[in-house]
Fold this sequence. Notes:
The chain is mainly beta. The protein has no helices and 13 strands. The strands form three sheets. The protein has a five-stranded antiparallel β-sheet, with no helix packed on it. Strands 1-2-3-4 form a four-stranded antiparallel β-sheet, with no helix packed on it. Strands 5-6-7-8 form a four-stranded antiparallel β-sheet, with no helix packed on it. The two termini are 31 Å apart.
Amino acid sequence: MFPNSPNLSTLNEQQEFIIPKKRFRIRDYEYGGIALSDASQGMFVQLWTIQYSGTNVQVHSPSSIEPTVLFTATGVTDLGLAFDQSMFPTVAYVQDGECKLRWYDTSVAEVVTTIYGNTYKDPQVTLDDARSDSATSNDIVFSYIREGHINFRLQRDRYLIEYATGIVASRLIQTGMTRNMRFQFKYIGGV
């Protein structure tokens, strides 16, 4: 959904997110397919939840009987969830003060964890547009605050390129598609 050169809109149209309001740092929501690794019915089938329970980072959906443990970790304070076009989970999280991104890297055909360090705050991930007619152009957006600004990285770049928004913020609360079908950052402004 982001063009080849991601630019922000100058319109200030604050809208309600399609997914529920993010109220807890260790719980997030994302629309996804019918099952993990199954996007056969599209990416807007049901609302998935990720949460940190004990030492487990787990996901579940209305159609799952039990939560699926994605991985175990101690000291997790922030969680964000997205699914790629094959319904593989992408998880942004902070563990012991370090921001990490756990994602499926198609170039090595396995799940990898990229460590971004302690200068990245409030990580969020989301599929920018889960509608079926956007399947060839949608992207996972990994957003965060670094040095007092909201920046982001895209799945299409394998999260290697950092894009600056120019937005000064002290906290990034939520990102994602809104009811008017636009991508939005919800944040608290900085000084």
